UniProtKB/TrEMBL annotation:
Residues 226-358 form the Acyl-CoA dehydrogenase/oxidase C-terminal domain. Its cofactor is FAD. Belongs to the acyl-CoA dehydrogenase family. Residues 119-211 form the Acyl-CoA oxidase/dehydrogenase middle domain. This is Acyl-CoA dehydrogenase. One of its GO terms (cellular component) is plasma membrane. Keywords: FAD, Flavoprotein, Oxidoreductase. Residues 8-114 form the Acyl-CoA dehydrogenase/oxidase N-terminal domain. Pfam families: Acyl-CoA_dh_1 (PF00441), Acyl-CoA_dh_M (PF02770), Acyl-CoA_dh_N (PF02771). One of its GO terms (molecular function) is oxidoreductase activity, acting on the CH-CH group of donors. It comes from Mycolicibacter heraklionensis. InterPro entries: Acyl-CoA_Oxase/DH_mid-dom, Acyl-CoA_Oxase/DH_mid-dom_sf, AcylCo_DH-like_C, AcylCo_DH/oxidase_C, AcylCoA_DH/ox_N, AcylCoA_DH/ox_N_sf, AcylCoA_DH/oxidase_NM_dom_sf, Mycobact_Acyl-CoA_DH.
Length: 362
């Protein structure tokens, strides 16, 4: 396996480096309210520069390059101290695999070029790990479905134009089979968005969304009634792969920043974080190489998610060891790392999937 850039990859990397050098000093600060407020602007700038959606279909505005180009983007953004690439690959894959050609043509270009913002309305106050128990309803009325229910932890709900929504369309069949998926406009009466403050003080990352009579055309259902579960499993499966999320480069950047600050003895937490980050970097390379060989992953995404969580939380512990509670950026990195074992499916759920679907335990 040769991890060095091919000539085309090296050319892409140097164009991106030059693009980033031209913009040095203008980046939104990563991770705070300003970053989230300007994330759309950053997404559109990356896209216009030719550095976003590199591996996605040309038909919808991507460049159909191998996924290694996305990793080059992640590495160079981290090296330049720029904010990460907004992560929405799981939504692109979800629509790409389950939506009709008509819906793909209508919605994927705006999602990829960043002119239309999206959120994912899956979790509810009583349905997170046990997503199939969701109670938001979609009731057919003429050409529309009418939505009632309560979604929570909905990332980007405050700025989203569209929501990929799961709702129950049939109560009389086994629960997984009664769920349908919709693309619903967030700009309409009957939708109330309430921000939630995160433990690190950020108020614009996610919120709760209350649906009370909001409408969605039946033509914006993805697949047939009852086919929402299959889409949900595709989306959460892809949410769990570190290679598509670019986290590995972000952790490496933080570890390097902390290493530069330390004089004298290196705290053990930082040494572990450095080792684990390098391990994740190599793991991501292996997954990429498997993807290039045409291998696609199912439940193995849960192993990736667990690994990614361990590494992020090690980096978080190192941040606390190096900065204590007095450095707001390092404290924020520690606090945010606590969310990694919950978002996209908790660590316990990943272990259940590994036990049942990979190890065959009952
Ligand atoms: C930063 C962040 C962003 C998020 N963004 C979104 C988003 O954009 N859209 C969205 O829909 N959701 C989002 N979520 C929600 C996330 O998917 C849920 O929080 C997650 O699935 C867990 O659900 P829950 O919070 O209801 O916890 P629960 O399911 O109530 O779990 C509580 C505890 O019980 C454990 N547990 C539950 N069931 C089992 C079991 N069968 N076996 C063993 N242990 C179990 C869990 O592991 C956990 O420790 C986000 C969450 C976070 C933290």
């Amino acid at each position: 396996m040769d991890f060095r850039d091919s000539p085309a990859e090296a050319d892409f990397r140097s164009r991106l480096r030059a693009w980033l050098t031209d913009r040095a000093g203008t980046f939104p600060a990563a991770g705070d309210d300003e970053y989230w407020a300007r994330q759309g602007e950053w997404h559109q700038a990356l896209y216009a520069g030719g550095f976003f959606g590199a591996s996605w279909p040309r038909e919808y505005g991507g460049q159909e390059l191998p996924p290694v180009y996305d990793v080059i983007v992640d590495e160079e953004l981290a090296a330049a101290g720029a904010p990460p690439r907004p992560s929405l690959g799981y939504l692109v894959v979800g629509l790409g695999r389950h939506a009709s050609a008509e819906l793909q043509q209508r919605f994927l270009p705006g999602m990829i070029d960043g002119t239309q913002r999206w959120c994912q309305g899956f979790s509810e106050p009583g349905a997170g790990s046990d997503l199939a128990s969701l109670t938001t309803t979609a009731t057919r009325e003429g050409d529309d479905y009418v939505i009632h229910g309560h979604k929570i932890w909905t990332s980007y709900s405050d700025i989203a134009d569209w929501c990929l929504l799961l709702a129950r369309t049939d109560k009389d069949v086994p629960r997984h089979r009664g769920i349908s998926a919709f693309i619903i406009s967030m700009h309409q009466p009957g939708i109330e968005q309430r921000p939630l403050q995160m433990i690190n003080g950020v108020t614009t990352e996610f919120g709760q969304v209350l649906f009370d009579g909001a409408r969605v055309p039946a033509s914006q259902m993805i697949g047939a009634p009852g086919e929402g579960w299959a889409l949900a499993m595709t989306v959460v499966g892809h949410e769990r792969e570190p290679s598509t999320l670019g986290y590995s480069a972000r952790y490496g950047k933080l570890v390097r920043q902390m290493a530069n600050r330390v004089s004298g003895d290196v705290p053990e937490e930082l040494a572990w974080a450095a080792v684990e980050t390098e391990m994740l970097r190599l793991h991501v390379r292996r997954r990429l190489s498997e993807q290039l060989d045409g291998l696609s992953h199912g439940p193995e995404g849960s192993l990736d998610k667990l690994l990614m969580t361990w590494v992020e939380q090690s980096v978080g512990h190192a941040a606390l060891a190096v900065g204590g509670v007095d450095d707001p950026d390092l404290l924020s990195a520690y606090l945010y790392s606590r969310a990694q074992s919950v978002m996209g499916g908790t660590s316990q759920i990943q272990k259940n999937i590994i036990a049942g679907r990979i190890l065959g335990l009952k």
